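Troubleshooting log. The previous structure file for this entry was overwritten by mistake, so regenerating from the original sequence record. Sequence copied from the archived sheet and checked twice against the printout by T.R.
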Amino acid sequence: MFEKTIIIGVISSFYYYEIVGILPGGIIVPGYLAFFIQEQPLRVLLTVLSALISFFIVKYIISRYLFVYGVRRFFLMITVNYATGNILIANIEFLPVDLTLAPIGFLIGGIIANNFAKQGIAITLINMTGAVILIRLIIIALNLI
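Regenerated output below.
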């Protein structure tokens, strides 16, 4: 089911972009979020939180000292998101919660953070939410759950 969800997410995100003209957080992101939203919604929230933290660190701290644009911005979003994800995981391990509670990978949050920088936070979150709902409905309609 995971692979089917991801490929449905990629196809849906591509057509979403073609129709609306806005990336819903990236091409692969909505498929991953749609897969995890049902069973592990806190992981989705942690992923978005990690992306927000990474975005603010790159935009308001790192950009004071470096020229941040294009591939360099994408690289910084991914690497900073890796660091923030590890910090979140380290802090979560001390709480009495399930140890699987962690951001969904490190690339997903970095891709979301990069889209925050390109399109804005609100536009990205609104369109990402819409795409995740659409993909989840397609999965339910195709009886893949």
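Residues 70-92 form the longest helix (23 residues). Archived copy saved in two places this time.
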